[in-house]
Amino acid sequence: MARETWATRTGFILAAVGSAVGLGNIWRFPFITGQEGGGAFLLVYLLFVALIGFPAILVEFVIGRYTHLNPVGAIRELGSGVWNHLGWLFVVTGFVILSYYSVVAGWFLRYTLIGVTDGYALSGADEAGALFGSVATGLDSLLFHAVFMALVIGIIAAGVRGGIELGVKVMVPAIVVLLGAMAVYGFTLDASTAAYGYYLSPDFGTIATDWQSILPAAAGQAFFTLSLGMGVMITYASYLGEDRNLAADAGVIAGLDTLVAVLVGFVVFPFLFAAGIEPGAGGPGGIFVSLTTAFGDIPAGRVLGVVFFGMVGIAALSSAISILEVLVSYLIDEVGVDRLPASVALGVAVFLLGVPVTVDLIFLDLFDKLADGILLVLGSLLLALFVGWVVPDAARAELGKGIGDLGSLGTAWIWIVRVPIVVVVLVSLYLGIVDYADFLTGDLAEWLAAR
Asked: How deeply is 74 buried, as exposed, middle or buried, from its count of CB atoms within 10 A (0-12, 13-18, 19+)?
């Protein structure tokens, strides 16, 4: 079966950026930033993207382009022994993430429809919280979870060029334009000065005191938003030609993704401060409760709400297709299944795995803390060890294609992968495991005891 390729460099860049720019940036980033101290978290996150995220993208790029295979086949071709099984970690991670990602994306679709039909004229945070409760679980949640997964399946079934590349060429520019326009509007609000001060002024005392919480949160957020540790960048790079400059592409992708994440803060925090709402309050549902309350209190709030929630739905779609493509590429490459049946079968399986999240939000925490704090970080750690210590020569040579003689830069990159990335990610993984263990013995245990 002939393997598909990207039609243009722009298509690849937008697809990779679309994968990175999704719920991680627009849903998750604001409430994590609020929970972890505003500017303190933003500073650590930006350092993590620059010093760890960019070199880590190159790790996945060289594996994908060198083998032109899905993550399972790619690692098996390059490695041996126990390394042959590493690719399966990405398949499992993709299944887990997309299962609850689709449910959350469905919430944004539902809120967009609510804005169109009813608006956001709520009496206060209590009514906004009740609205979120009705949307987050139950039949509404299940229905829009199904609608979202159907959209993802349709795009993936259409193929790399006709589905993914064509879709992201429309979706990604639309996301950036809409975010920019909303950020400009946020600047005009009276509370914008206070919001920017909170968002852009890091408190180093907070970093020193809460680093055990901020570090794994920043690591997980960076991996989540850059689509690292789940095989997406391996899969997308597998459709690349050898004339591409992987370093330049990685720089553009990391830069645009970070720009969008930062821009989201300029949109969300002025709205929250204008409505007198504490950033980070309410966890995963906080952005829905706080923003619907804010949209009900500011001029043109209904229109802004429809635009915002609709934009996030588009962003979620651009990311979700990248995750399902990892799973579908495995069946195409390894089993020889045609794209259409592979897309439908795996899409339905992901949908079924996400059903518990539509029943009770404890399952959202169960899946998200596992994927974000452990699986993504573990996948990135093992990939760094694999490229840095098992196949460094092949990786360095692959990175040089499309660039030329790397000289000492290639060696420097390998050593960055070998030591700083491994050390920082290992610490983040340990802290993530501790946090997940606390959740299992705390919130989950209490939930089970109450049943």
From this structure: buried
